[in-house]
Amino acid sequence: MTLANTCIIVASLLPIVCAGIAKSRGFGKRRRDGGYDNHQPRAWLSGLSGWQARANAAQANSFEALPLFIAGVLAAQQMQAPQATVDALALGFIGARIAYIAAYLADQATLRSLIWFAGLACSIALFFVGGQ
After folding, report:
1. Which residues lie closer than 8 Å to 45 by C-beta, 6 or more apart?
2. Which residue in 31, 32, 35 sits closest to 52, CA to CA?
3. How many other CB atoms sit within 10 Å of the CB of residue 6?
4. How far, in Å, CA of 29 to CA of 79, rounded?
5. How far apart are CA 4 and CA 66, in angstroms?
6. How many whole angstroms separate alpha carbon 85 and alpha carbon 91?
7. Which of 53, 77, 88, 122 could join 93 via S-S bond, C-beta 3.0 to 4.6 A?
8. Burial of 117 (C-beta count, 10 Å sphere; 0-12/13-18/19+)
């Protein structure tokens, strides 16, 4: 398995991490005491605010970023791009996504947007590294 393929797995797990962060304050509490409601999770999540709401939004955005990244890695590998370049771009994407989530949680909107563009650039660049 290449490093880029491992990055696909990591990128696929990031939304789950964000979901866990969003739900974390509700774990261990009863539903009636404001704890996580597994019977109506979307309704419970829609009532969040602050960093928990931002973690939930980061989860959604992490899912949204996945298709282009996965397609980019697979396309680059199918075009027989230099694997070191594919790996570097995939790592760049993962680094950007982790920084994006951190900036989202910290409510750093402008920084978050700049980091989002860096991740997008990595995903798009994957389509152009094949060369032939």
Report:
1. 22, 23, 56
2. 35
3. 14
4. 51
5. 13
6. 10
7. 122
8. exposed
The amino acid that residue 30 corresponds to is R
Q: Which amino acid is at 114?
A: L
CB neighbours of residue 68 within 10 Å: 17
Across the range 83-94, mean pLDDT stands at: 98
Residue 28: Cβ within 10 Å count: 9
Contact in structure between 119 and 103 (CB atoms under 8 Å): no
| Alpha carbon separation from 34 to 40, 45, 62, 99, 109 (Å, rounded) | 12, 11, 26, 30, 28
CB 49 within 8 A of CB 9: no
The whole-number average pLDDT for the span 86-109 is: 98
Length of the chain counted residue by residue? 132
pTM equals 0.91
Contact between 64 and 104 (Cβ < 8 Å): no
